[in-house]
Specification:
Number of helices: 19
Largest sheet: 9 strands, mixed
Radius of gyration: 33 Å
Number of strands: 15
């Protein structure tokens, strides 16, 4: 019996065939557009993309190139389209690597990786408002105070006034405040200027004392350093660095994605392990290896690169060694790194630790199959995949003759996104997590406390302060998620409050008032608040106003603050409530209780 078709069925078949022809024509005439500038050899760390199209999982719909029909199979191979399918019924010859040791399959193995068992490495303490002291611990402060006093006594003898913990904290607070006020390149004399400077600097310490601390700050005994330098180039600050670096992983649990990359602290002075990296903005500096959380950019572990050992050759497999060192103690995470670190052997070593890896691959790696390195004859925006039982390799032609190679131990299928550029899901995941360390450099450089110096241990110490301040802010933000909701200047306010909290004890201990009126008033306010009765301190009020008129029986005297050469001294009966000096109207300032404590209150930003 002959089959009968209605008019609607005939029309539907005709339209479906026309759609297939139009689809193939559109594929051949597609414009060459690229959204990713990665070529597997070098990438721009400043461009951190956050793609709104999330990569599909293995349970979602299959991409178009994974189930081609038999009559179109030869056409796809000629055009260089997405040639690899995950269908189990296809049988294609394996792709042999350049060293002949690894066989890559053009077909996915159909494996499904289960959730990784996350092992928490910390924290061992609950951070409080003084989260900064969780990193710069009292043990570190004792070392710095002891070594600085030892060096100062050797240089100045009896003329050296010993530094204590309050002096050191105030010095660190001024460095942090200078970074908050974006005064990194500004001369210190301008910060202490009576007219254009900041009041808090003159109220804390004199410019002479600040310069003396900057010159004499030491982290080890210089007389015994020569013996330690024979085996350790970082001997000048090694003890402080080890104590600080051990605190980083103990206070924070990173998320599921961790980024490993290099950090370059700008420095052009003399240093035995100074590096030259022309692709970096600073070009010269001290390089550190950093492993940080991809989302929050919390620095979880760091290593200072001190170069090759004396008399030794270049280190082999340095990238593998660095990643394995920085991920020690982690489990159940995915590590994102660039082509300097990524290798097939590294991925296998990480799998043994219950870790996965996603990263770009250099084209000279011996484990790559030559079939994926060829870009001639391929269509732009096409992808080729190769698989082993534990790894996935993708070759994405972002532009003409621009082949991007990525290796993943996390992905098990060759999924293609439905975006216009047809980027594989593997590349989208890499783009989301690759900028963790680059973002750390950006946020640290915004309010950096670095000062001009020719002493490289001080440069390392400034970087310790910058990273500690940012890590403390990350912990504070996690503990207090409802702090300053909706505000975009949270980190600046946090750093300003941190700096003022560090300098406050020294201001309250000052025995001599500064010469400028504003700085003197600030010292009086803080000292009067300290001397107030406990009942008044609990109520948040000052002990007394800064200036109070005397009783009617008091005598009228000349102002004791006016210079002697002034033609007419102000004759007044007003005395200061604290020092009992006679002051005229031009030398006094009237404050209410709220404004007197606003500058150094917990919530104030002045």
């Amino acid at each position: 019996m002959a089959a009968r078709f209605t008019a609607a069925q005939v029309l539907e078949q005709i339209l479906s065939s026309v759609d297939q022809e139009d689809y193939s024509d559109c594929q051949e005439e597609e414009d060459e557009e690229v959204s990713e500038e990665e070529d597997g050899e070098e990438y721009n760390p400043e461009s951190r993309e956050v793609d709104d199209a999330s990569p599909p999982s293995s349970g979602e719909e299959q991409p178009e190139e994974e189930a081609p029909e038999d009559e179109h199979e030869d056409e796809h191979e000629d055009r260089g389209e997405q040639e690899i399918s995950s269908a189990p019924d296809r049988r294609e010859p394996p792709l042999l690597s350049k060293n002949g040791k690894i066989e890559w399959s053009p077909v996915a193995y159909g494996r499904h990786r289960g959730p990784l068992a996350i092992c928490h490495a910390g924290p061992d303490q609950t951070p409080g408002p003084t989260a900064f002291h969780l990193f710069v611990t009292p043990a570190i402060e004792r070392i710095i105070v002891e070594m600085t006093n030892l060096h100062g006594a050797r240089k100045y003898g009896d003329g050296w006034r010993p530094m204590d913990a309050k002096d050191l904290c105030a010095y660190l607070g001024l460095l942090i405040l200078a970074g908050v006020y974006r005064s990194r390149g500004e001369a210190a004399a301008s910060l202490w200027d009576a007219e254009s400077g900041r009041t808090v600097f003159r109220a804390t310490m004199s410019l002479k004392v600040f310069h003396r601390y900057s010159r004499l700050l030491r982290f080890d005994d210089r007389q015994s350093r020569a013996a330690r330098l024979a085996t350790d180039k970082l001997a000048a600050i090694r003890e402080v660095w080890d104590l600080w670096e051990a605190r980083l992983p103990a206070l924070y649990n990173p998320g599921p994605d961790v980024t490993v990359d290099e950090q370059l602290v700008p420095f052009r002075g003399r240093c035995p392990f100074r590096q030259y990296i022309p692709s970096k903005p600073a070009k010269y500096g001290i390089k550190s290896w950093v492993a940080c959380d991809a989302k929050s950019s919390y620095a979880w572990k760091m290593q200072v690169y001190t170069g090759k050992a004396a008399g030794a050759g270049p280190e082999k497999n340095q990238g593998m060694r660095v990643v394995l060192d920085l991920t020690t103690g982690l489990s159940g995470r995915n590590v994102t790194c660039d082509n300097f670190f990524t290798s097939y052997d590294l991925g296998q070593r990480l799998l043994e630790r219950n870790l996965t890896m996603v990263g770009t691959v250099r084209k000279n790696k011996a484990e790559l199959p030559p079939a994926l390195l060829e870009s001639r004859g391929r269509q732009v925006l096409s992808s080729r995949f190769a698989f082993t039982p534990t790894a996935t390799l993708v070759s994405y032609l972002a532009k003409r003759n621009k082949n991007v190679l990525l290796l993943s131990m996390l992905h098990t299928e060759g999924h293609i996104s439905d975006r216009r550029d047809k980027e594989p899901a593997l590349i989208l995941d890499y783009n989301c997590n690759k900028g963790g360390v680059d973002n750390l450099d950006k946020v640290v450089g915004t309010y950096s406390c670095r000062r001009m110096t020719a002493c490289w241990p001080l440069v390392v110490f400034h970087n310790i302060l910058d990273v500690s301040s940012y890590n403390a802010f990350v912990i504070w933000r996690e503990v207090k998620p409802d702090w300053m909701p909706g505000k975009r200047n949270k980190r600046r306010v946090f750093l300003e409050q941190l700096g003022k909290a560090l300098v406050k004890p020294l201001i309250q201990r000052r025995h001599h008032l500064p010469r400028t009126e504003a700085a003197s008033s600030l010292v009086k306010v803080l000292q009067s608040a300290t001397a107030a009765p406990p009942e008044q301190q609990r109520q948040g009020t000052a002990a007394a106003p800064l200036v109070a008129p005397a009783t009617g029986a008091s005598k009228r005297k000349r102002c004791q603050l006016c210079p002697p050469k002034k033609d007419s001294h102000g004759v007044t009966h007003t005395v200061c409530c604290r020092c009992k000096k006679y002051i005229c109207k031009g030398c006094s300032h009237a404050y209410c209780h709220t404004c007197a404590h606003w500058a150094f209150s917990q919530d104030g930003t002045g």
